[in-house]
Amino acid sequence: MAEIYTPGHGIVTDSLIMHGIVKLYDVRKVERVGERFKLMGSFETPDSGTLSLLEEELRIYSKHPEVLSSSSVLGKVTDSNVNVSVTPKWLGKLSDALTEMEGDITDVYTVDHKDKLKEGRKGKQEYLLYLPLSFVYGKFSQSDYSVTAKDYSVCGHCFALSNIGLIYGTAVVRYSGKDKTSVTLMTIIPDEEMDRADLLLAQRFVQGKSVSLYTELTLKSVVLYVLSVGETLFSFGEHSPQVLVWRLERSGNFMRSLQPMALRLGGVLKKVAEIKADYPYFTNIVLKLSRSEDGAVVLDRLADIILFNGDPYPALRQLSLFLRKNKDEVGELTVKDLPNFAKILTKQ
Ligand SMILES: [Zn+2]
Fold first, then answer.
1. CA distance linking residue 61 with residue 267, whole number of Å
2. Ligand 1 centre and the CA of 116: distance in Å?
3. Domain of life here (predicted)?
């Protein structure tokens, strides 16, 4: 079994590259090494089905750009992007980068890959990491609230793999408001280590999840939303993974990315699954709350209880007020049911 390392472009990019490699190669195990990952498996031949599907969609897009929104895989790239004007260039570069993905990557991802290929800020490579793929982004990247020029360049492998990781390894929650757009991305990564079955489970869980909302949710609420909506009942092996969530915002020409948040998933998943088992309308409550600003405030409090064992009473008080304001009904929940719902929430 061969061993390779993600290059060390930061936790977000490395998580995406790791998921890209898991999607394309026979990865047996992934270990966390700080903000990088060590992957064990066979890296000789990439999965041709995944590559040809991407190439096919890129070919169609180059002739008919309008199909992008309905495209099954490339749509995820557009959904994640707050700066729509770069889309043609981005997808053009993805086409170029995919031509480099034919062969063996065992000798590509050695521990010194990044230095060897002179990647990074002021790097010597031809592919720029766009904002959703990293925290640094051309002239729009921002530190300490001042906009500075920081081109972060990587090789074709890093670019192709981080895109594939974005498509197959993240959930995307997009908010479009009047003056602001934001995109929150979420991925599941090992806290210590994960085996192949768990890694594929993590990808299956997030990959189809790309939603657009008209209310902006907090990072915590996005995690609760993604965990609650759709399939929840699954559990990971002996090591609890982490969920990594990060956000990009745009208002006018100003763009920024927020610090990512990481939290352990094990206990949280179990809790959400138990709540759903005891209260089958839980998903409806989450959906309903996510549709209004008042509701989003309540959802944030619920996320506090479920993700961080926060005090349940402020959330329940807010929920009760919300219920009274909304004709006594939130996704089948009524004021009368509230004590029962409280019992379920505080059971664990
Ligand atoms: Zn590279």
1. 42
2. 9
3. Archaea
